[in-house]
Amino acid sequence: MGFVRHLPHHIVEAFRSTLEEVAYADLVVHVVDGAHPDPEGQVSAVREVLGEVGADRIPEQLVVNKIDVADEETLLRLKRTWPDAVFVSAHSGLGIEELRAAIAQRLPRPAVELWVVLPYDRGDLAARIHRRGQVLQTRHTEDGTELHVRVDEQIAAELAPFRR
Fold it and tell me: Is 0.70 topped by the overall pTM?
């Protein structure tokens, strides 16, 4: 959304429905150009638009990119301003593992861990687990697909007949 700051307001309105989808996210990964002359202004503009579409309550992981070409003084200032930001270079890969870890830590984790054996004709349930839960282990047996999963309470209830 770094482009938002330079767009006329009526163009932003045209993209509003797309931007409103952000309100359904679990986490906003907000990437700012660390080599830009005004990264703070970029962040402010994006946050303003997120507020306009009701997505300002979504947790945000701020990521400062281009640390390989950004001015050292700017990076030091940004680290003081945004101590929880992750600093990366998409070009060199520096900081990417730290970013992955930060995202994984901030994403919600389903609360119920269980083992189930799903009959092979219940691919619908397996797909829903993959979409909304976390598959920790999979094994195919004669009786169906054995899954060690972490899911929310609702899916756990649907899986009750298949618990092992």
Answer: no
